[in-house]
Amino acid sequence: MTTADHPLDEDITEGQKIVSYSVNRQGEYELVPEFIWQPVNVVNHQAWREIEKKIARSRQKILAGQVSCLHYYMTANQMDPALLAQYTGQSRWKVLMHLVPFIFKRLSLDTLRSYAQLFRISVDDLSKGRLEPPVYNRK
Amino acid sequence: MPDFPHHQSAHCESGVAANLLTHRGIKISEAMAFGIGGGLFFGYLPFIRINGLPLVTYRAAAGHILRQIASIPGVRLYQKKFRNREEAMAELDMALASSIPVGLQTGVFWLPYFPKAMRFHFNAHNLVVYGKEGNEYLISDPVFPNPVRCPADDLARARFASGALAPKGKMYYFTALPAKLEHGPLIVRGIQSVCRLMLDTPIPLIGVRGMRFLARRLSKWPRRLGRERADLHLGHVVRMQEEIGTGGGGFRFMYAAFLQESAEIMQEELLHDCSASLTTAGDTWREFAAMAARVCKGRARPDDTYAAMAGSIDRCADLEKKIFIALKQWAKRQA
Lengths: 139, 335
What we know:
The structure holds 2 protein chains of 2 kinds.
Chain A (H helix, E strand, L loop, with lengths): L17 E6 L5 E6 L3 H26 L5 H8 L4 H8 L3 H7 L2 H4 L4 H11 L3 H6 L11
Antiparallel strand pairs in A: 1-2
Chain B lengths: L11 H12 L6 H7 L3 E11 L2 E7 L4 H7 L5 E5 L4 H13 L4 E5 L18 E9 L2 E5 L7 E4 H8 L11 E6 L6 H17 L7 H19 L1 H16 L9 H15 L2 H28 L9 H29 L1
Antiparallel strand pairs in B: 1-2, 3-8, 4-5, 4-8, 5-6, 6-7
Helix pairs in contact in B: 1-2, 2-9, 6-11, 7-8, 7-11, 8-10, 9-10, 10-11
């Protein structure tokens, strides 16, 4: 595998070197700092493409009025209803209910606040349905 | 500023173990910590799903290495999990105040210093906190080249990440250590435990039999799942094998480094040979990964097929079976 396989792909470690074990000329193992192996970038990008696809689908569903904006925040932060339920200390079916726009609009301020805190957005973002980037995409 | 011997490592748990031991005056390499901790493994458990994809693992369960090291006579490891976030952070601060570097299990999703592309909900990460300045913790994260900093709120979130393998604020540090580690018996013990898992398991999903099982299943993926899903499954296997924290070749290179170091310590030619064979096995895993990456990218060469990839994995199984049988017999002779 050549490193010049796809130079446009951004390195997943953002240019930081990682160490790996490789055998030197004397046949001895050394811990050497190097850039990430190219196939690793390929499969990592594949995983992210899949996440991005899910996010795009979620946006469409929100536009079509099928789900509440909570669905976007859940998907964008790589969660499913089960994980989101664990993070907010609720049962899964409650989270599933909150994905329904009709019910989401009638949520109490406290519930909204707990979601907002988790996703690091304001309650206003949630109640107005603004779609902010996920936690890992912000400075 | 507090001082901590930060050495960059290939794997987080063995790296943390080695760094914590080195800090207490017991110099040990990461590969040696990985080996005596019995870190190598293989398991393909399709009934456990990660983001809807089957679990493949090339290493022992999270916490295994530390447990093994903690069970060495004379070693005492203080470990604690928490229910309450404030309590967990307070106890961390207390330990730091008496200048004890503390090992933590965390999730990586909430750690802001992680590269964006690595921020998944993976909860079995390990790091060492060695100081606090204002509202920021000083962290020696073994997979990064240099020590890093992390705001308190983010670290608290990472310690209480939810989902599979939730860390529950787990923290640990050594409270007692022998003056010197006698490597010989620990090496034998570590090798024995890995051999047992790789060869003598009643479950056909782990060890060498697990590799053959994966190979069999993998060759059927395109037919069973369709092209797109099959490629996703394939990419997932490669990520578990090669992504940061594996040292490459699904931990095989790291274990080969351990065998080489052990060969020197014990003056044993056989361990040298096993190390060389394991390097070949690691290379074969990488051949598979490179092929898989080409397939995932839609740049498959004519002979990059699922059948050929299954063949590579079968070759790995053959190689590793020979290696671990030789190691098992060697370990028996040492007892």
